[in-house]
Amino acid sequence: MNQASFNHSLLSFLDDSPTPFHAVSTMKCELLAAGYEELVEQQEWVISEGGKYFVTRNDSSVIAFTTPTLDFAHQGFRMIGAHTDSPCLKLKPNAHVERFGYHQLGVEVYGGVLLHTWLDRDLSIAGRVTFKAEDGSLKSRLVDFKDPIALVPNLAIHLSRGVNTDGFKVNPQEEILPILCGAEHTLDLEKLLIEQIQSEYDDISVSSILSFELSLYDVQKAAITGLHGDYISAARLDNLLSCYVGIQALLNTDASRPTLLICTDHEEVGSQSSCGANGPFLEDVLRRLSPVPEQYTQAIQQSMLISADNAHALHPNYATKHDQLHAPLINQGAVIKVNNNQRYATNSETAAVYKDIANELGLPAQTFVVRSDMGCGSTIGPITSGEIGVATLDIGLPTFAMHSIRELAGSVDAFNLYKILVAFAKRDQLISA
């Protein structure tokens, strides 16, 4: 695989994954095509040496792993972690709003959204719908309208004269409701969803919609951009970019040690859920692989996790927002994230392992430390490390406009991180005693 083909497939993955449900579905298809066996949590597992497996939870989180050996106590795991969710606008349960001559949607802000970037964009709707089928059974299916069917128009400057000088604030209850159509049209949201399900699934007849988890998303396609093609411009780079890099590393390594990829939901809202990093999903899987407590602890202490989440690149228009000695540049390498208050889980040993791999491959690495007078974000790294006790490194690809409806990262960085993660999966030696 070369950089061009890697990035081309990345763009397709981003476009095919408008929600965490769709991201996991896309990854599931890749895993099945690569010969991975799907495990079901409600069933007994039979794990064989030389096997390749994956399991999903809530349709929005996935763990995939290889077992070249079953001696987990002495071999441990090489783990790669990322998250499937991104800040967005989600439909409220009673979403249909009719007012002032328009049909609109009531939405709830999910995560730390840059709200103003959602204005004047062509939006569609995707997610999971649960319904009663004509045969009486309850089912869930993913839907994606794909077409631009909604928009949130800006207020004209003539009606907001101070917007460019006094600042711009968006009230999420009153000012971010998308418009679907004029009130001269009839709108039945349940009927609309039934028609969409039946258009995507020929073998299903729907009796009634019972519930849904639907998100708005920008229909503009991901693209390679910049004068020399230096950048990837897309929605949901945080953190589908890391999910893609992680799964490609897993699929393209022949490591002799067990390798595990975990992509969990709900990181943007704290990870506190049954399928989030602060839930039991990873530990449940690891304890089923190593059910003897003594051997489980040995396995964890033989393991290392690389938690991959996007990092803040130095923005040339806002350079003072960075500590100048820890200000990453796009396409100058993945970023080791350090925070002595444990907002990142990196320590000197895990950072050294990563730097050693990068040096052996002749690839660059950068370091990010937030300004001492600013608050620091966090990742699944310290959560996972705190939950199961695994040595962890927090890294990320330098990015502009994080949590915007459209973000910007480097077209070189992702491929270089992929090569480092492949080498990490094959790494036998961590830190010697």
Give the helix/strand layout:
Elements: H1 3-15, H2 20-33, E1 37-38, E2 51-57, E3 61-67, H3 72-75, E4 78-83, E5 88-99, E6 102-110, E7 123-133, E8 138-144, H4 163-166, E9 179-182, H5 189-200, E10 206-218, E11 223-225, E12 231-234, H6 237-251, E13 259-264, H7 281-289, H8 293-301, E14 304-308, E15 311-312, E16 334-337, H9 348-361, E17 365-368, H10 380-388, E18 391-396, E19 398-400, E20 407-410, H11 413-425
Parallel strand pairs: 1-2, 4-13, 4-14, 14-18, 15-19, 16-17
Antiparallel strand pairs: 2-3, 3-13, 5-6, 6-9, 7-8, 7-10, 11-12, 12-20, 16-18, 19-20
Family: Belongs to the peptidase M18 family.
EC number: 3.4.11.-
GO molecular function: aminopeptidase activity; metallopeptidase activity; zinc ion binding
